[in-house]
Amino acid sequence: MPEREVVPVSGEIRLGQFLKLANLIDSGAEAKGVLADGVVLVNDEAETRRGRQLVRGDVVALRDGRSAEVG
Questions:
Q1: Which residues are within 8 A (CB) of 3 and not within 5 positions of it... i.e. 6 or more apart?
Q2: How confident is the model at residue 6, as a pLDDT?
Q3: Average pLDDT taken over every residue of the chain
Q4: Which of 2, 14, 26, 47 qualifies as a cystine partner to 42, CB 3.0-4.6 A?
């Protein structure tokens, strides 16, 4: 299993923004689709809200195994 990348953020960040910042998706527009498809997990729980507020230590993963931690 690949090592999880810790992506540093300053201040607050929402899930849709973090997916792009962490290179888990190619574009911000793609966030809506992957969230609607139910392939995004936050701390091992399915998440569909693009505007979900993330905090340091949250782990965002896609069902294909890629993941990143809010740092």
A1: none
A2: 96
A3: 94
A4: 47
Residues lower than pLDDT 70 in the chain = 1-2
- φ/ψ of residue 21, rounded to 5: -60, -35
Rg (the chain; Cα; Å): 11
Pseudo-torsion of CA 11, 14, 20, 22, nearest 10°?
A: 60
According to DSSP, the residues that pair with 13 across neighbouring strands are: 54
3-class secondary-structure state, position 18: helix
User: What's the confidence (pLDDT) of residue 28?
Assistant: 81
SS3 state at 61:
strand
Contact 3, 15 (CB under 8 A): no
Q: What does the alpha-carbon distance between residue 71 and residue 69 come to, in Å, rounded to a whole number? A: 6
